[in-house]
Amino acid sequence: MKRILTYIFLGATVGLASCSEDFLNVYPQTSLSSTTFYQTPAHFEQAITGAYARTRTIPLNGLIMDEMRSDNAHFTMYAGDRGPYLRTEVIGLFLDDETTDTWVPTRYNEVYNGISRVNTLIGRLDGSELTDDQKKAVRAEALFLRAFFYYDLVTHWGGVPLVLTEAKMGEELFLPNSTVEEVYNQILTDIDEAISIGLPVATTFPQSGRATMGAARMLRAYSYMSKPAREYAKAEQDLIAITQMNYGLLDDYTDVFSLSNKNSKESIFEIQYLDGDGGQHSDFPWRLIPKCSNLNVMMGVSANNYAYTSGGWVVPTQEMVDSYEDGDKRLPASIVVAEGTVNAAEQFTFESIKDVKGYVCPEGKAYRYFTNKFYHPPYSFGLRAGDNFPVYRYAGALLLLAECLVEQGKNAEALPWVNQVRARAGLPALTSVTKQQVSDEMRHELAFENHRWTDLIRTGQAIEVMTRFGQEMKAMYSYILPGAFNVTQDRLLYPFYFRELRVNKELKQNPGYKGDY
Q1: DSSP reduced 3-state for 364
Q2: Residue 485 maps to a domain
Q3: How far, CA to CA in Å, does 64 sit from each of 73, 92, 193, 199?
Q4: I need a labelling partner for 142 at 20 to 30 A (CA). Which of 30, 43, 163, 189 fits?
């Protein structure tokens, strides 16, 4: 079986690794100083694994900050969340601010932790025992990761400090904001070099889970299409190159998310997890299902998702369900209904799974919509799962190419790429395509994969779409405060957490948030 990279927590700097037949596992065996560690190929293999580990918090944070921030999803109102999870609710209501903790600062800090790890190993390459070819391979992979991390930062916080070298003194970390243009320029500089050095092209599947030429070109295309001065022609070249690699659509949309199809030919880049009790698991499937009093029935193992690993988040909206075309196979693969009962304490007891299309709740029953893509019972461990999380898929590359072409007025050239995706979804071919139709296809194809919010921003729809969505949600739910969904230009970026502003006096708050600390 091919070795699959698994990302684990390595401590503050790095751990030591040993390879099994099936997986690259990392186990701390002893302590080494930074002056003696970065020497051998094995050291750098372990260090790059440590950098990948910092990607593993992005999917769950993204589900709250990208999916639940969009018109795809809301949350299940539960009185018990008024205290511990109010900080989660406010993100979806656009009521968050610089004091909102957990999701926003955790994502920011974890991404910068990854950048720090990458900077350290890049800075130690020249003094190592690696051959020139080995140094180039490590550098290319590290530059991809640094660009990936900074792209996540710039699309959520805008102009962030650019830390590009190993910080050996505390003051070296206290840098001012760079401009958005400067951050994108650095992303493109890193990706250009990684591509020039030569990342591997995926030729066999399942892949290793590590950076490839396809992932680098996908990241560069997104960057060209998201930065203030768009460069669609360059993005088109990268996306066309991806179509000429070895990727392809799986025959069945449901199979894309099967645990047996991790790192498949449709995967360009995905975050790696492994089920079990070794700390390498994901938990987002447990967050997406309803809060449930009998998880042993719904998930196959007893657990409590009313508490620490709380469920009932990123709940598909009725509008999202209704937005799918008749016959779209992606709907049942993406969203299902949990049917059951609710008692006076608001506790939901699960009974059965129902098809969402045309669902009518029987009298005396209750129901909850939830995301089906990552629901794979029975589970062996409570609050743990082994689902990978897709970042870039081939279907997404085809639709991004279609968007890129439409933006250049090449609508006819975009049509075949859109129709490839629609054919797999069981939908009839379009005879012409507009920017809005491409956006709708992306919404349904990539639903609950953390693209919708940044897609709305990139395509200039965020304020209009989310203002309308907010009005609809307020009409449906009386608990939503009047000030919710005040979606302005300032709200397209998240605030810097107030503690960051206290620690780094050079950092300036994003417009629309309090910055005097």
Answers
A1: coil
A2: no
A3: 9, 7, 33, 32
A4: 30
Encode burial over 83-113: b for 16+ CB neighbours within 10 A, e otherwise: eebebbbebbbbbbebebeebbbebbebbbb
Looking at residues 160-174, what average pLDDT do you find?
A: 84
Residue keyed to tokens 């309803």: 290
Judgement on whether residues 179 and 88 belong to the same structural domain of the protein? yes
Say yes or no: 188 and 215 in one domain: yes
- 319 lies in some domain: yes
Closest CA to 89 of 351, 315, 321: 315
Q: With 80 as the cut, is the pLDDT of residue 113 above it? A: yes
Q: What is the DSSP letter of 474?
A: H
Query: Average pLDDT over the chain, rounded to whole?
Result: 93
CATH number at residue 71: 1.25.40.390
Contact 391, 271 (CB under 8 A): yes
350, pLDDT greater than 50: yes
Nearest to 215 by CA among 250, 254, 251, 241: 241
- Label residue 132 by pLDDT band (50, 70, 90): very high
C-alpha distances out from residue 73 to 226, 352, 443, Å: 23, 22, 12
Residue 155: is its pLDDT beyond 70? Answer: yes
pLDDT band at 33 (very low <50, low <70, confident <90, very high): low
Residue 19: pLDDT above 60?
A: no
Same domain, yes or no: 188 and 332: no
pLDDT value for 508: 97
262 CA to centre of own chain: 16
Distance between CA atoms of residues 123 and 234, nearest Å: 30
Tens-place pLDDT, residues 189-198: 999 999 999 9
Q: What pLDDT score does 2 carry?
A: 40
Q: Are 416 and 431 in contact (CB under 8 A)?
A: no
Q: What is the pLDDT of residue 32?
A: 55
Look up residue 169 and give its two tokens. 């003194």
- 505-510 long-range contacts, Cβ below 8 Å, gap at least 24? 505/174, 506/161, 506/174, 506/175, 506/176, 506/177, 507/161, 507/174, 507/175, 507/176, 507/177, 508/176, 508/177, 509/98, 510/157, 510/158
Domain that holds residue 413: 396-450
Helices of type H across 336-393: none
pLDDT at 371 over 90: yes
Same domain, 219 and 292: no
Counted domains in the chain: 3
φ, ψ of residue 24 to 5 degrees: the values are -85, 105
Per the model's pLDDT, the better-predicted residue between 262 and 20 turns out to be 262
Give the SS3 label for residue 389. strand
